Automatic annotation (TrEMBL):
PROSITE patterns: GMC_OXRED_2. Belongs to the GMC oxidoreductase family. It comes from Gossypium harknessii. Its cofactor is FAD. FAD binds at residues 36-37, 82, 195, 468-469, 497, 508-509. This is Glucose-methanol-choline oxidoreductase N-terminal domain-containing protein.
Length: 517
């Protein structure tokens, strides 16, 4: 039970992918408090494992690991709400950032490498490459995503096997495991602790200074955690690309007009808080298979030179209602095909769910747009820190982003129809049928064009989803300086993906953990 008032050298808001390694590191020489609004991933140790990836993301119960939201663009999304953050609910792929990202962030190369290794020693593994993943990787090579770079954590053009945070038994290892590095006598972690606001000291002729936070426990009781008088002591926001800008605004730092609208006392007018929020657009193909497929999440990636990443998973479980949607859409498409005597058609019509059963017999191929130019913003919806803010990403506002998607989806289609992948696709299903299947699924709330299955531009726009790599909102150079200190405020830093100007590497978790370290 947390005391009503307590004092710490560092108060970290958010025990997520950045917050856990950050807390472990600081506890080596200081007293640290971590406030995490979610619960523990260790309560039910098998729940975060590989087979539960989609069920966990689609779980909408109040105690779920993922809090769902829908952006103003009509795209379903989620944010983590658990110790370990996004590393508890993601697809597990572990890959380092491209050198340009690190250079742009002004990070020390030796320290970066040391920090990545510190993370990798504890939670990164080489994934198994079984039949389906191997066939698709070979298909990508056939489609021209060359060379074959084998297994590496590094970001290199071509096709490579990356790391994974799942071990050989499909058990997930998360950022929360990095707390094993912490000094247990110098760290306190409170779960179900929701920070309401950061408290500031404002004196005439001196800069505003963070003093501590007010947080509420599971029972709704308020607590005050305050900084010690040590000159180094700080409040550090690690609440993610939605939580960090939202909390800054709730604490009085943000666009003054918006704060005044909610009656929030303006501590500092900072119009850039909540701006420059970006989500990498994701588009998918769902490919039913005539042959059995293994359960796999992302094991390899195709890194193209034109700014698109291709990844895939197979044999995953959906919820029963999702399975029915997929089966129904597939049956409708098969109904239109002439070769109705094929095995797939008979299976699909007589028992559409035989294709899915509890696990999908087939795979999902993702195309992610790298470094989208289109960007959006975040605004407060209300003053409740538990609620999601209002988020707009403006997907494909820039035509360059749309071109990357079109090019990437073409490459994914070429890989599906390659010789290497022929055992895992039905001849009867044309590329148009695969596009139509996606168009007919309730993947988002966006309207559909009649030509979605004929025009890749329309397909990208109509069926866009998220890969949960959204970032920005407290950008480096706009809200924080090169040392991640909030501009114009003392004793307040932000260390998480909200500071990023682009998403690092193919999947950001490795770099977010490295940054925390």
């Amino acid at each position: 039970m947390a005391p009503e008032v307590s004092f710490y050298d560092y108060i970290i808001i958010g025990g997520g992918t950045a917050g856990c390694p950050l807390a472990a590191t600081l506890s080596e020489s200081a007293n640290v408090l971590v406030l995490e609004r979610g619960g523990s991933p260790y309560e039910n140790p098998s729940k975060p494992d590989k087979g539960n990836f989609f069920p966990n993301l689609l779980d909408v119960s109040p105690s779920s690991y993922a809090q769902e939201f829908t952006s103003e663009d009509g795209v379903y999304n989620a944010r983590a709400r658990v110790l370990g953050g996004g590393s508890v609910i993601n697809a597990g792929f572990y890959s380092r950032a491209e050198p340009e990202f690190l250079k742009q962030a002004g990070l020390n190369e030796a320290l970066v490498n040391y920090s990545y290794q510190w993370v990798e020693k504890k939670i990164a593994f080489e994934p198994p490459m079984l039949q389906w993943q191997s066939a698709l990787r070979d298909g990508l090579l056939e489609a021209g995503v060359l060379p074959n770079n084998g297994f590496t954590f590094d970001h290199i053009y071509g096709t490579k096997i990356g790391g994974t945070i799942f071990d050989g038994e499909d058990h997930r290892h998360t950022a929360a495991d990095l707390l094993e590095y912490a000094n247990p006598y110098r760290i306190k972690v409170y779960l179900h602790a929701t920070v309401e606001k950061i408290i500031f000291e404002t004196k005439v002729f001196s800069r505003t200074r963070a003093q501590g936070v007010v947080f509420e426990d599971e029972l709704g009781k308020k607590h005050w955690a305050l900084l010690t008088k040590d000159y180094k002591s700080e409040v550090i926001l690690s609440a993610g690309a939605l939580g960090s800008p939202q909390l800054l605004m709730l604490s009085g730092i943000g666009p003054s007009q918006q704060l005044k609208k909610f009656g929030i006392k303006v501590v500092m007018d900072q119009p850039m808080v909540g701006q420059g929020l970006v989500d990498n657009p994701l588009n998918v193909l769902l490919v039913p298979s005539p042959s059995p497929v293994e359960l796999s999440l992302v094991s390899f990636v195709g890194i193209t030179r034109f700014g698109s990443y291709i990844e895939a998973c197979s044999g995953i479980s959906f919820t029963p209602s999702w399975s029915r949607s997929v089966a129904k859409a597939l049956a409708a498409i098969l109904n239109q095909t002439e070769q109705s005597s094929t095995k797939l058609f008979q299976e699909g019509i007589l028992n559409p769910e035989s294709l899915l059963d509890t696990r999908i017999r087939g795979g999902i191929i993702f195309e992610k747009v790298k470094d989208p130019i289109s960007s959006g913003y975040l605004e407060l919806r209300n003053m409740n820190p538990r609620d999601n803010p209002k988020v707009t990403f403006n997907y494909f506002q820039a035509p360059e982003d749309l071109m990357k998607c079109v090019h990437g989806v073409k490459i994914a289609i070429d890989a599906v129809y390659s010789k290497s992948f022929s055992n895992f696709r039905y001849e009867i299903l044309s590329a148009k049928a695969l596009l139509e299947l996606i168009v007919n699924l309730p993947l988002n709330q966006r309207p559909r064009h009649l030509t979605s299955a004929f025009s890749l531009e329309k397909f990208c726009m109509d069926t866009v989803m998220t890969i949960w790599h959204y970032h920005g909102g407290c950008r480096l150079g706009k809200v924080v300086d090169r040392d991640y200190k909030v501009l114009g405020v003392e004793a307040l830093r932000i260390v998480d993906g909200s500071t990023f100007t682009s998403s690092p590497g193919t999947n950001p978790q490795a770099t977010v953990m490295m940054l925390g370290r």
